[in-house]
Design goal:
alpha+beta; 163 residues; three-stranded antiparallel β-sheet; Ribosomal Protein L22, Chain A; two-stranded antiparallel ribbon; 5 helices
């Protein structure tokens, strides 16, 4: 039996000016979700990292559609992670001629998408010809008798005749 490999598509955003720790908080929410669901989660997330992660997700979907002929809405976020990038070090003047170090962290955001593994739909069972032949035809139900029509009350006819 041949095993079909799952096709995986990825997109990476490098040197994003954001703390990796803060970005990881948002990435945890979309891991394992379908693409439409992940987009909805990111759209309603208040954190600034959600905007950057949404860009990477859009890029990964575009890669899947353009390069691999996949349907974007049928994909699942199979992996999403944030790695640390280089830290820019800056100095800030402090009292008495001293200096304080300022760290400006960066991160690399990676989003991987894969196709949803769906079980093949079972075919509807074919009707058995033997079972149909054995059954006796059912008698038709008797027709209902029509109810007699009601006559209009005599009072209305008398009122119409007088006017």
């Amino acid at each position: 039996m041949a095993t079909a490999e799952r096709q995986e598509v990825q997109a990476v955003a490098k040197w994003v000016r954001m703390s990796p720790r803060k970005a990881r908080l948002v990435v945890e929410h979309i891991r394992g979700r379908s693409v439409p669901e992940a987009r909805t989660v990111l759209a309603f997330t208040q954190r600034a990292a959600a905007r950057e992660i949404e860009k990477v997700l859009r890029s990964a979907v575009a890669n899947a559609e353009a390069n691999h002929n996949l349907v974007g809405d049928d994909l699942v976020v199979s992996a999403a992670y944030v790695d640390e990038g280089p830290v820019m070090k800056r100095w800030r003047a402090r009292a008495r001629g001293r200096a304080a170090r300022i760290h400006k962290p960066t991160c690399h955001i990676t989003v991987k998408l894969a196709e949803v593994e769906r079980a093949p739909e079972p075919a509807p069972p074919a009707p058995e010809p033997e079972a149909q032949a054995e059954e006796a035809p059912k008698p038709k139900p008797a027709a209902k008798k029509a109810a007699p029509k009601r006559k209009a009350p005599a009072k209305k006819k008398e009122e119409e005749a007088t006017t």
